[in-house]
Specification:
Elements: H1 2-24, H2 36-58, E1 67-77, E2 80-89, H3 108-119, H4 124-135, H5 141-148, H6 152-159, E3 166-181, E4 184-196, E5 202-210, H7 215-227, E6 232-238, H8 244-251, E7 256-259, H9 261-269, H10 274-288, H11 293-307, H12 312-325, H13 333-339, H14 343-356, H15 365-380, H16 390-400, H17 416-421
Parallel strand pairs: 3-6, 6-7
Antiparallel strand pairs: 1-2, 3-4, 4-5
Helix pairs in contact: 3-4, 7-8, 9-12, 10-11, 11-12, 14-15
Length: 422
């Protein structure tokens, strides 16, 4: 035992001397010519030889089985790339544990680095360049895709997770991306949903993909939310998609639907002549910035008298959608500011586009889903605190919607932090 310990100590000292000398000479610990690369190679090959000896010792019944040379393969590690010799047996039954037969990456460190860079929205090409620069190891697109595919079960679990019974305010909107479907690059609509919990915190409820934006698809999305446990939404804020309010109320009949006023304004200005835009906007502000709904309707009539003949399509759109455009007038300025536009979800879209802009078109629908999920997780990191003045907001909503919030009151909420912010 003493002799073995002496040899081990002698070997360890030699290794330490080699590392110290290499560092003094300016060599790096990791990378293509890293100090640790040959040491790891030697240690692994010694361990593999030991595994083979144990395997042959345990399979004595196979008297004809014996060592049968070595196979070589190039493996990658966080400390560099090298050629590893793996022992073989005559019968081909040896399955090493320390480095599997088809394993070419020896450590999770590279995988973790790939996942981190991917979660930051970096393109496959940039990820490959970064890994090569840091570790001196080449990682191609297929390998990166394979590594990032590990997030797929996480995405599936997240998409199907149970939700709260009641969300006081919910925002729904879509954004467009491109993905390769059946060998053809097609536009895909990413349907995103953000709910505000009773505690006032934003929560991404899910995302869904479709080839086009339509009320029928939103109907299936809302049904999925219901199946995942959502019983009620007090106020639902959406864009001006035709049939959207009806789709919402078919699943959640008690919900108030507020169309995004900003979307309505943008769509209106598409039909206004450039020379009239400034004056038209000034008159339009008197409508959507009025103190009361009654005053807003008076100003809308005046807008129609002044501009109706010149821009009938625009005025018709405001009149037809007024029921859902004017919901926010029921509330105080605090709540109005929150629900008259879908800016909350568009803020998340801006973050998500930082991730998707690195791709001209995603190679598959799943590749798009992986990036969208990472974008949502990045955006939600900033959602740890309640929305401003939430204690006042939830109190107002409780008055406006008696007994509706009680569906979720079996859970005790701590509003002390919220009240300090109010």
């Amino acid at each position: 035992m003493t002799q073995v310990k002496s040899k081990k100590t002698k070997y360890t000292s030699k290794v330490e001397e080699q590392i110290a000398d290499a560092i003094k000479s300016g060599r790096s610990l990791s990378g293509k010519d890293g100090i640790l690369t040959p040491i790891i190679k030697r240690a692994l090959e010694t361990a593999l030889a030991g595994e083979m000896d144990n395997y042959l010792g345990e399979s004595k019944k196979e008297e004809d089985n014996r060592k049968n040379g070595k196979s070589k393969k190039t493996v990658r590690s966080a400390y560099g790339e090298f050629e590893l010799e793996t022992p073989r047996d005559r019968n081909g039954g040896f399955e090493p544990d320390i480095v599997k037969k088809r394993q070419v990456v020896l450590t999770d460190e590279i995988d973790q680095k790939v996942m981190k860079l991917f979660s930051l929205g970096m393109s496959y090409e940039d990820i490959s360049d970064n890994i090569s620069e840091i570790y001196g190891v080449g990682v191609d697109k297929s390998q990166i895709s394979g590594i990032t595919d590990r997030i797929i079960p996480v995405i599936k679990e997240w998409q199907g997770r149970p939700l709260e019974a009641v969300y006081p305010i919910v925002f729904l909107d879509g954004m467009y991306c491109k993905a390769r479907i059946n060998g053809k690059v097609e536009a895909q609509v990413v349907y995103n949903i953000i709910g505000v919990t009773i505690e006032g915190k934003k929560e991404a409820l899910g995302f869904y993909l479709s080839e086009s934006e339509g009320a029928n698809f939103w109907l299936s999305v809302l049904t999925d939310l219901q199946n995942r446990g959502v019983k009620d939404m007090l106020i639902v804020c959406v864009d001006g998609l035709k049939g959207f309010p009806e789709a919402i109320n078919s699943i959640f009949p008690k919900s108030q639907v507020q169309l995004c006023v900003v979307h309505q304004i943008r769509n209106s200005l598409k039909y206004i002549s450039y020379k009239d835009k400034k004056k038209f906007v000034e008159d339009l502000k008197l409508v959507y910035k009025a103190d009361t709904k009654e005053l807003a309707e008076i100003n809308l009539l005046e807008l129609e008298e002044k501009w109706g003949k010149k821009y009938p399509i625009v005025i018709k759109s405001w009149n037809e959608n007024w029921e859902h455009l004017s919901v926010y007038f029921m509330y105080n300025k605090l709540i109005r500011k929150m629900i008259y536009t879908t800016n909350i979800i568009e803020g998340m879209h801006r973050i998500m586009r930082k991730f998707t802009k690195t791709k001209g078109g995603f190679t598959s629908e799943m590749a798009l889903q992986k990036m969208i999920y990472c974008g949502i997780q990045s955006a939600s990191k900033k959602w740890s605190m309640p929305l401003p003045d939430w204690a006042l907001t939830i109190s107002q909503l409780d008055i406006m919607f008696p007994d509706r919030l009680g569906l979720n009151m079996s859970k005790k909420y701590d509003f002390s932090v919220v009240e300090k912010l109010a």
